[in-house]
Amino acid sequence: MARKCNPYSFPRYENDYSFMGLKECQKHPYYSPTHIAQNENPWCRLNDSATLSSVRRNVCYHDPEASRDSLDFHLKSTYDHHQEFLRSKNETLFQRETYFDDHGRILKNREKAEAPQCGMKEIRVWVNPQKASIYSIQGTIESHHNASTNRGYSRKHDGGFYST
Q: For residue range 117-150, what is the model confidence (pLDDT) as tens digits?
């Protein structure tokens, strides 16, 4: 004869169905099928308007100014061996589009925003006419450790060390 009581005294684990009962679906169903909804905004607007990168990935896209091979890329760089001798490899391959805006190519799909003109006065920079000595301890933060002498440990006036 089988026993009907549970031999385990601890409570049984609960899951999604036994904890609070069966949950209702929280996602609302779509009101129109996918092939009709794709012809409405925002799907239609996003699908029909091409970005610069998607146009450049197109099979029919051709850029006459683009480098065809490594030699063209090196020749179009702004590096001048007579004036900029022994630059790093990255600096020798910088292109004109990196430095100047008069190249006539659209690199990003953004409009150039001009800096706002505000009536602020020019910032004045003050430089001390008298060079302070780097060995001077005047104006430093007082502490028992001072970097100016003895590897960061200063001595007392009587010659002994500070202790903590």
A: 777 778 888 888 888 887 777 776 666 655 555 5
Classify burial at 97, counting beta carbons within 10 Å of its beta carbon; exposed 0-12, middle 13-18, buried 19 or more.
middle
Integer Cα distance of 159 and 131 in angstroms:
31
Work out the angle at residue 27's Cα, subtended by the Cα atoms of residues 24 and 28, and round it to the nearest 5 degrees.
Answer: 105
Residues 25-34: contacts with CB under 8 Å, at least 24 apart: none
Collapsing DSSP to helix, strand or coil, 145 comes out as strand
- Of 93, 88, 66, the closest CA to residue 78 belongs to 93
How many angstroms separate the CA atoms of 69 and 78, rounded?
17
Q: Residues 106, 112: contact at Cβ < 8 Å?
A: no
